[in-house]
Amino acid sequence: MKATAGVCRQPDIHTFLERRLMWINVLLALAGIAALVLIIAWFKSDDFQMSRSMAMKAPASKAFEQVNDLRQMNAWNPFLKFDPQANVTYEGATSGVGAICHWDGNKNVGAGKQTIIESLPDEKVRMKLEFYRPFAGVNDVEFTFAPRGDTTVVTWSMVGKLNFMMRLIGLCVSMDTMCGKSFTQGLTEVKTMIEA
Question: Model pTM?
Fold first, then answer.
């Protein structure tokens, strides 16, 4: 009986190089796509603006009270509902210009400061909204109260600048999409409270 020696096959150098070249091409394509996304985000406008409005069957004064006093506002503030255990403190005026609220919560709420900078009774409240984390930023928030017959149209708007990370996220989901639902929820709560 003849013993057969095992045949040791050398890897085909061409197959090896082809596979290696294929993976290099895949990695280069992925790097190119990532670079393109970063470039688009870099040149994307950093300005954003969003707003939501809702008609409420109540006088403007009742809606104004819910915003002009930050303690009352935080009872319905949809963003604080993401962390009911958030540490919230107040300073300055009780309501109106100079009223200040600080918050510090979980990763969903972050930390920041809200200051009323303009207050026109039953017409408008403007606030400076400063974020410390998860991303630093400053936005302007405005509530307007427009009487329309037996209703008041309350508009909640926000304008500001997006940092690079937020512009990158904005390629997939806009600020309007991220915050719009919460604005609507907040206005709905105000409507329920003042129409009761």
Answer: 0.73
Beta-sheet strand order (sheet of 47-56)? 47-56, 151-161, 137-148, 124-133, 111-120, 99-104, 87-92
Look up tokens 């393109």; give the residue: 36
Structure tokens at 184: 């609507």
Q: Which CATH number applies to 46-195?
A: 3.30.530.20
Domain ranges across the chain: 15-44, 46-195
**Bridge partners of residue 137, in order along the sequence:** 131
Residue 76 — pLDDT band, cuts 50, 70, 90?
very high
Task: Count the neighbouring beta carbons within 10 Å of the beta carbon of residue 52.
Answer: 20
* Nearest in space to 88 (alpha carbons), one of 112, 64, 65: 112
